[in-house]
Records
---
Amino acid sequence: MKSSRRSFLEAGLGLPVVLNAAPSFAGVLQSSETPAVKDSSFDPWIEIFPGNLRHNVQEIVRRAGSRPILAVIKNNGYGLGVTNVAQILDPQPEVFGFAVVKFHEAVSLRDAGVRKPILLLGPFDEINLADCVARNIMPMVYTPLGPALDKIAAKTQKPVPLHICIDTGIGRVGVPYHEAAPLVRDLASRKSVQIQGTMMTFTEDFDFDKEQLRRFNELCSSFESQGIALGRKHAASSFTLFQHPDAFLDMVRPGMAIYGIYSENEFRHTNVMELRPAVSLKARVIYVKKLRKGDSAGYNRAYLAKDDVWIATLPVGHADGWPRTAAKGAKVRINGQLYPVIASVSASHCIAEIGNQECVKIGDVATFFDSQLGSRPEDVSESCGASVYDLTMHLNPLLPRRII
Ligand SMILES: Cc1ncc(COP(=O)(O)O)c(C=O)c1O
């Protein structure tokens, strides 16, 4: 089959409806200084489904007994684009606010007009802290920051709202629960501080989570019995939503479930929440050819054709966020059929094995993952061992995001 790139573009062959949709571009692509889109139609793109995001929020509300949701949208909104996700979820009354890790993400949300509370889970210095306060971004605190908070509050003449992070066993950030008392008492005693929340993170080890919750509850009760107001207590990620209803506390704090993806494959087979993937990765076939028996494909000749076989080259590689392990069992959907990814995933390409018929042509749309059974992110994860977190969070921020 002969089809040059130019003739394909001129003929507009097979252009999907999505190209007619008003594209929305995340992060740097939203800058007004960015020139009009220059992507060739063969370059990969990411589709975002706001209807599914809203559906998943409703499922979480149903599961969490109407508790408010602090939506975790860190790491570029799990790949969907941090401002895209926030702007879609901002009007949802069930979404109390947003949590991010990177300071610049918090700032970009305010710059994009997001008005709901923002919690910064990540690190900051004193200058960042003053910027946070100026932009109404709440810091997550676990070190003796009292004097710095006093200085800022003296300038603004308002207490600084913040959340305190307690480490009950994850050993990452947070003041260790057995050393937390002096810090919490110090913060609570300052006029410069308004404790709006107190939080912890589970290790997601089912049994140890129970011990973590016991530590947290005991500590919080002890503070509260001393008259210390801790604000909203929260701990529940997506895993907790499925596994520990006794840990929903005053607010839930999921990420992955919002994007409609089961954080653990076994959760798919429960009826706890019906989640619909809100993201898909697509690109067009750039080349179709026949390998003869004995021909090879991929670096290190990773694939050797046992017979004559048609293959399709796809312009998506690990630099786009498609994991290298995809060549170990993942499938891509082209024209409704699933085809195995073979050989190796290189930085910008991968190869699908089509079979003994040439049933795919240049320009056909290939879906790497979407919301259909067989090509959901969890299916890709199950087939090749890539984590669903890697599939979404590693999506290259420069790929265009199209809101469908
Ligand atoms: C502190 C914290 N809370 C909540 C979440 C949400 O986790 P998940 O995406 O598994 O729901 C994360 C994500 O890793 C996190 O770091």
Note: Residues 1-35 have pLDDT under 50 and may be disordered.
---
Amino acid sequence: MRQPTYRDTAVVLRTYKLGEADRIVVLLTEHHGKVRAVAKGVRKTRSKFGARLEPMSHVQLQLVEGRGDLDIVGQAELVDNTAPLVADLDHATSGLSMLEVVDQMTLDREPVPHVYRMLVGALRTVADRQSPLVVPAFFWKLLASEGISPELDACVRCGEPGPLVAFDMDQGGVLCRACRSGAPMSEDALKLMRMILGGRLTDALALPPSPATHEVAAHATRAVEHHIERRLRAVAMFEPR
Ligand SMILES: [Zn+2]
């Protein structure tokens, strides 16, 4: 009996070995959510898939519905060439940390086309240029898409408009001097956060590295970790820098 096939585009989130020659690929597809699929013979030297099913690959796929949780990869064609991403350690680290967070924050077969589009956009930005805010901005936008947006305009505890000196995701955002908890936040970092979450992402991504971009990155990592309640392996592996 012929099994149903379907086509979709996807980003490969991670892969793991299956038996001698096969690999399971975990994909974030555009229309079918997170899908696990078997790529048969992918670990053989002359695999028909070549290197197209590596983490960060953006691919057009034909998939065959499996009987259980696993589908089967029929065909895979590259949409974007992510080889430059993989070759550069900084780029690869950025890409992998985004993949890991997406993997943690998505459920099998629950379509999240907005997350797919954000991930593809962020991977392309990482490949195009060195921006210290691509990953943190991606984390903040991802959290915002889950309904988690920090308060940035006034103290979350007393409503004081300023000066705002601390940031605490447990409290839900920024805090004034009297109420402060969590981590200190500089004025410049607060400005960047407002740019990222206030519709000026492109301007934020054009900025060079600075103490404020580091600060925003640290806050973003903590917020995402807090959300997924586990330390990110990809981040931990490369700390301290
Ligand atoms: Zn306050």
Note: The beta strands are 5-18, 22-29, 34-39, 58-64, 70-80, 164-168, 173-176, 183-184.
